[in-house]
Amino acid sequence: MTEHLVVIGGDAAGMSAASQARRRRGPDELRITAFEQGDFTSYSACGIPYWVGGQVPDRDSLIARTPAEHRERGIDLRLRTRVTEIDLDRRRVRSRRTDGDSGGGTSGDGGSGGPEEWTGFDQLVIATGAEPLRPPLPGFDAPGVHGVQTLEDGAALLATLRRDVRRAVVVGGGYIGVEMAEAMIQRGLQVTVVHRSAEPMATLDPDMGRLVRVAMEGMGIEVVPGAEAKEVLLNADGRPRAVLTTVGEHPADVVVLGLGVRPRTALARAAGLALGDSGGLRTDSSMRVEGAEGIWAGGDCVEVLNLVSGQHQHIALGTHANKHGLVIGTNIGGGRATFPGVVGTAVSKVCELEIARTGLREREATAAGLSFDRAVIEATSRAGYYPGAAPMTVKMIAERGSGRMLGLQIVGREGAAKRVDIGAVALTAGMTVDQVVSLDLGYAPPFSPVWDPVQVAARKLVSGRAVSGT
Amino acid sequence: MTEHLVVIGGDAAGMSAASQARRRRGPDELRITAFEQGDFTSYSACGIPYWVGGQVPDRDSLIARTPAEHRERGIDLRLRTRVTEIDLDRRRVRSRRTDGDSGGGTSGDGGSGGPEEWTGFDQLVIATGAEPLRPPLPGFDAPGVHGVQTLEDGAALLATLRRDVRRAVVVGGGYIGVEMAEAMIQRGLQVTVVHRSAEPMATLDPDMGRLVRVAMEGMGIEVVPGAEAKEVLLNADGRPRAVLTTVGEHPADVVVLGLGVRPRTALARAAGLALGDSGGLRTDSSMRVEGAEGIWAGGDCVEVLNLVSGQHQHIALGTHANKHGLVIGTNIGGGRATFPGVVGTAVSKVCELEIARTGLREREATAAGLSFDRAVIEATSRAGYYPGAAPMTVKMIAERGSGRMLGLQIVGREGAAKRVDIGAVALTAGMTVDQVVSLDLGYAPPFSPVWDPVQVAARKLVSGRAVSGT
């Protein structure tokens, strides 16, 4: 008998799941219907800052697989169609065409459109993604104030940038904030980043975030800490004139929002599915929604297990979404796959500055009830005598007593960011700092000092341990 | 009572051991004497190709710590002094000043010089390094035929390059061979690499070595496989005219030898210390020579345990030598440290081409009695749409049945080499390919596709397993 798989959400997690299930089970065995409220499938939202900045020439470059390509593979893809209800009892979803809607809004919030339709399912994949935080404050919905989550958002921002804009204010100092600061610099604008915390990149410890701020300032970016946005002040034409924050008024012709996202789970909540503390769906390691048979979830709408802290958290990243999709599609396709969890790895850059983290920040380690030691060292990306050797600062923390590595942060230039992978694998394996010192990492003068910077940090922790143990 | 530590060999392993021991025990507790037959200490032999190539401006850039710096730290350093005998029964070494010798020769082979002297020891570190293979064939000791192991070698080669030389033949297609090919290209010479195996870089599988050959040929380097050197043919002035191999005559004004090295263990052998099959000293994980109390060895003169194959092998690499020195110095200094072994990681480059390997080649896996599957994939260093995304080929092998990763090889452009660290850490942890697929690696478009190339290879092995398991 043919099973029916319904997928809600046509981006990374949803379409990876659909594709993988299709690869394993042909149309005779598995019918697949996917609902997507927008016009696009399988695109790289992470690439939007580089499209806006001009490093990526056009929108289509960001699309990994088009609707037509999915349809060719036997997936019944319904674009511009919003799922408005999940009926778990009767195993069906209600949907409505959104043609004629203002488009791109959040799902599950009603709105006008075409007639409603019910579609039954045997297996359901919830991949509704995340929605950007947009403060309900005056002026934040004006033209010229832009989120950057969807391709439509990117196109709208680019349209604004074609106007006579000179000064950009980026609200938020996290990954999206710093990447959009770079994009605005690339476009030749004068850039101010306003953010709430003491230092930008609050996913790093403040001492490392400080390095990011200093580097950004060196690039001519104005960084305003401790600034809570209050209002976007508008010109007579209804477009931005300035952003008003708790610390002042920051002139702006264009405003970019990088305030992070939250899981888009209104549909799932309404259906009675269990959500975690973060507001994301809680799944087991096979990506099955806890307590619900044949209901799967992945991507930015779920929360994930942090293997270092043992706690669940919400992390919206395309790389996780793709893995979730692979796992879900494999399992629906009759295989067995699991997503064991994350270690909190993230890399980013702002112009020449590379920023990376994995594992726990100090605050997270403390919250997880761990006591720890820290080491911060300076090193270079290549042998010091080799041309292009770039400085980097490496911070590592390790559990006191056991020496188990807990976290790694790197801020530097070329060659800094991907070094964090050493830490990501070591954290996954539960290695101690002594084990990290012994790792057989690639060494040659063009690629690394004879001790890799990550090992220099680990050595410092080991020698600290040795001293404190005496 | 003051103990006396004697170190034989003033480069990475020996002087790291001395420095680390000194850091932990002051001169009142530990007297340290180090013998070095040459003029230099603690230098980067791995950097010589870049000094010769001109990327590194001068010899002194390669010296990490000068003799004077070691002496300031209370190490009695005897330069130009060769140890000629280790007397284990009476715990003493015999040494002789080599001033006036032809210099730079192998140790333990007698020769004239100053008077002999005996020095007693409580602890002995043997760090005699490795000696380059130089075939006992006609012409190979002529001026204009150069090894590149010591700073003296580098200076001699540079002196030759200042003459009117146009054509270089590099004998050997391994790391030293390809790095010296790059150096000769940098110097504007016409370069031929002759080597015995079917493809260069025999530390890779032949299918990956082939990529290196094709890339080298694209750079204008002539690569001659299956060529066993027979003679260096000389001009009337006693300098090279051509290299004669089993496949022909290759015109050369300068000849560079990159035939690899073997452990320099004549002294240790004469003293009755046990050597492994590779000819290297065999130590336990604390770097103590097996069966000998208070005798330590590290660096290029020892063999190391390969954690993947479980077998011992000889790998001459500065990064291992430094770790050995740290471990030895820590243990002599009253701490506890171990060197658990290696996984066979090595990275190199030839011009823009990056070359990396870790774990076992197919041949090594077979020799270790393992059956395995292989995957070879093409990927890019960054998101495909991001500027500068460079192609790379990734090969992974995994044990059939268990799925345990066994080896990883990468050939590509910028961003290829250090990715091998992901494999190095995963191999150390004994991860399966499924676990590699799940790794939380750093992702952002400027740094990686959404699936890291290493994970793409692992995915292919996983799906092969899934298919073969059906």
Give a brief rundown of this model.
With 470 residues, chain A is of the alpha/beta class. A five-stranded parallel β-sheet of chain A has the order 3-2-1-7-18.
The spatial strand order of the largest sheet of chain A comes to 3-2-1-7-18
> From the coordinates shown, what is the CATH architecture of the largest domain in chain A?
3-Layer(bba) Sandwich
Give me the Rg of chain A, rounded. 23 Å
CATH class of the largest domain in chain A: Alpha Beta
Structure description:
- Two copies of one chain form a homodimer.
- Chain A is an alpha/beta fold.
- Chain A has a five-stranded parallel β-sheet.
- In chain A, strand 13 and strand 14 form a beta hairpin.
- Chain A is built from twelve helices and 25 strands.
- Chains A, B: It comes from Streptacidiphilus alkalitolerans.
Describe the protein's topology.
2 copies of one chain form a homodimer.
Chain A (H helix, E strand, L loop, with lengths): L2 E6 L3 H13 L5 E6 L12 H6 L13 H6 L3 E3 L2 E7 L4 E6 L18 E5 L2 E4 L3 E3 L12 E2 L4 H11 L5 E5 L3 H12 L3 E5 L11 H13 L3 E3 L4 E6 L5 E6 L2 E4 L2 E4 L3 E3 L2 H5 L24 E3 L6 E2 L6 E2 L4 H15 L13 E5 L2 E7 L2 H6 L4 E9 L10 E9 L5 E8 L7 H9 L4 H6 L14 H17 L1
Parallel strand pairs in A: 1-2, 1-7, 2-3, 7-18, 9-16, 10-11, 10-16, 11-12
Antiparallel strand pairs in A: 4-5, 5-6, 8-17, 13-14, 14-15, 19-20, 21-22, 22-25, 23-24, 24-25
Helix pairs in contact in A: 1-8
